[in-house]
Amino acid sequence: MEYRDERLESAYGEDKIDLSFANNKYILKWWSKTHDELIFTLIQKLQWHWFCEIHQKVEDITPKEVIKNWVKEDPICKEYVWYNVIAYFAEARAKIKGMTKDIRKPKRKKCGICQQDFNEDSLGYPLVIRLGIDDLDFCAPCLKNIIYPNSGIDDYDEKKIIKYLKELANILQRVPTQGFGERIGDLHGFTKKEKFELITFMKNKPSITRIKYFFGSWFKALIAAGILEDGTRKNSRGIQCLAKDGDVCYSLGEKTIDDLLYSLKIKHKKECYYPESNYRSDFLVNDVHIEYFGLAGNKEYDKKTKEKIKLCKMHGLKLLAIYPKDLLSYNKLKEKITEAAL
Ligand SMILES: [Zn+2]
């Protein structure tokens, strides 16, 4: 077998693009200035990996009919898959038009985990898209064990898993979403320093398989670690904590919701009274009461919940109920709130 140094060699080899691809008259028919601008934007975002996203982005901004007709008409689409044809065309065009001259040279760096030298372009697109082009501070072999789906350590015991999850919640200052670290957007929104801290911490990550083996699910593991509340436990209303905007929250779950509202720039009030009642809701967004029912399953708590729902019905108020399970996916939670309150 040929020896490949995963740390020093470019992930996709040298690009020897056939420049004649740029002369494709069938594409030139519909290729516009906006398409060229797309190339510029992608180069800003991904540098030497820009072409990895080009066919998808072109598809996003081009009418379906246009693509369909072109594929039918262009003889080269019988030879290659159409999205590769678009990528080859764009690559050749970018080169000829001088758009690629601003791409910076990949740097030689020392990996923050194994301390070995690596070249930035040895990281493949899936790694770059997770980290961000300016924050490539770890080598591919190290990262693959940390942020790829189904990665992580397989021989932890329960104690070690709980310790890891507690520390993770502590670093994140919110409820960690399902399999935190493995989804494309998990590391987005953190500063370079925060990312560095998170990834060096996550090298101790237990695998999902191991977590499921002991706890059944990520969700149950969070409950076992005391990060999410559980109605079957007493006194788990949690401790007070401050959300990013200074709001007082009574559990990490509530803080997770508050911080999300804040990051989405959604105006919200805390602890708002229901009419003719001593009950208060956790949040009020526009005219929608949002409740985090963290202790669902607890008898007394469920009774209160029912009364709150009744109150809302009586007064024709809108109520959005959020449960601990809803905190496992940021995107779904975002959707739920946006749909109900905006
Ligand atoms: Zn490394």
Describe this structure in words.
Strands 5-6-7-8 form a four-stranded mixed beta sheet, sandwiched between helices. The protein is α+β, with helices and mostly antiparallel strands and 342 residues long. The protein has three domains: 84 residues, no CATH class; 122 residues, no CATH class; 75 residues, no CATH class. It is built from 14 helices and eight strands. Bound molecules: zinc ion. Zinc ion binds next to α7.
> What is the typical, i.e. mean, pLDDT?
91
Q: Cofactors and ligands present?
A: zinc ion
Largest sheet, spatial ordering of strands: 5-6-7-8
Which residues form runs of ≥5 with pLDDT under 50? none
Helix content: 40-55%
User: How much of the sequence is in beta strands?
Assistant: 5-15%
Spatial extent as radius of gyration: 25 Å
* Structural domains: how many: 3
Q: H/E element string? A: HHHHHEEHHHHHHEEHEEEHEH
Tally the beta strands. Answer: 8
The secondary structure category is: alpha+beta
